[in-house]
Amino acid sequence: MHVLANVDEDSYSPQTDIKMGDHPVVWVNEQKKARNVYFLMGHSNRLFESEDFKTMFANAIIWAGNK
Q: Looking at the whole model, is its pTM more than 0.70?
């Protein structure tokens, strides 16, 4: 697995003393024959209001389709 993005626990709001380590949220698995992009960004419809997320999602579709 190749991690493309992760979450910094120090950015959590509200702050918490519970630390669980690395939190990858976007990754690809280059060991698979097909191109796969995994997003672990939650379940909120508000993601599709974010221009950054929509750009990332569109780029992932383009990348996966260009094999």
A: no
